[in-house]
Amino acid sequence: MTDPTLVRWRLLLGEAGGACLGGGQLDEQAAGRDAAMDWLYGRDDDLRKRGVRRQAGSGPSTLTTFGWLDDITRLFPKETIERLQRDAVERYEIHDLVTDPDVLARIEPNPALLKAVLHTKHLMNPQVLRLARRIVEQVVRQLMDRLATEVRSAFSGTRARRPGRMRQARNFDMVRTLRANLGRYQPDTGKVVIENPLFFSRTRRHLEQWQVILLVDQSGSMTDSVIHSAVTAACLWGLPGVRTHLVAFDTEVVDLSSDVDDPVELLMKVQLGGGTDIARAAAYGAGLVDQPRRAIVVLISDFYEGGDPHRLVRVVRDLVEQGSKVLGLAALDEQANPAYDRELAQRLADAGAYVGAMTPGELASFVAEHVGR
Question: What residue ranges define each of the domains in the chain, with the CATH number in brackets?
C-alpha cells in the first residue's frame, strides 16, 4: 500500500512529483483527484514555468465544468471543494460556475461564489439569475446570522454600577456576589456557597434622531466591503433611534436606502466596476444630513479618487466643522486588510475624519459609542 503522505505530495506536485511513488501508480480515487486538479491548475502558466506540470488525460479539452464539479464533490472533503471552487472563480475566472444553470443547481453556496455572482450577474439570463439568487440568499443569511448578534450587542447598553434584576451571565457582578456570600465560605472545600448571585443593571443608550449614512465605493476592488456594508446596514436597520442610509457609488451615485432592510435585493442591484467619483458621493451624503450633530457619515472606499480630491477634502472638512462624525474606511470586512491611497486618506484624516479599516462589529461599536454619548 502506498504511503498516503507520498500520494499527497504527488497530487501537490503533479507529474513532477512522480518520483514520490517510486515508480508506483495512483489508485483510482487518487487518479481521479489528480485529473480534477489537472483540469483546474493545468491552465496555470506560473506553475508550468516552475516545472509543475498538470496535463492529465481528462484535462480542459475533455472535462466540462459540470463534470469537474461533480468529480470534486465526490472525491474531496468539503474544505477542499470550497478552495477549488474559489480558485476556479477568483484565480482562473471560470465564470460558468455561476452562469451555467446546471452548475448553479448543484453548487454549494460560499462567499467566493457570492462575489462571482455579483461580478457576472449582468451576463445572466432571467432563469440563471433566479438560480444565482439562491447563492446570494444563502451566503447573506450566513453572514447575517454571524453579524446580527454582534452588531446589536454593541447597542445593548453600558453596564451600570448599580444592582439589576436582569439575571444574565454578561451582567454578573462577581465582586459584590463574593462579598455578600463570604459568610458561607466552607474551609473544608475551599469554596464559597453562592445563595444570592448579584447582577449589574444595564443603561439603555439614547439613540434618538441619529443618522448613519454609509457611502460605499462599488469599484471592483471593494467587493468584500460592498457585501459587508449591505449586511451591516441591514443589521443596523430597525435599531431604535437609528436611521440608516446606504448609498453605492462609482462615477454615479445610487441611493439604495429603500432596500436597506433586504440585503439580498440590495446586492442584486449593485453594479460593480467602473470609475470612481468619491467627492460626488460625499457631497450627496452631506445632503442627506438632517441634524449635523446627530449624523455619522461612513465613507467606505479605497480612496483612489477619479473625481476632484480637493472637493472631497472640502466636503469632509465641512461635515466635520458642522459637528458630524466622518469615518473613512479603507476596508469593511471580516479581515479588514486595506489597500488604499494613503496620501488622500491622510488628507481626509487631517480634515478631521477618522480613517482606518474595520470589521462590521468594530464599525457597530464605533457607531454605538458615539450614538450613546
Answer: 4-142 (no CATH), 158-203 (no CATH), 210-371 (3.40.50.410)
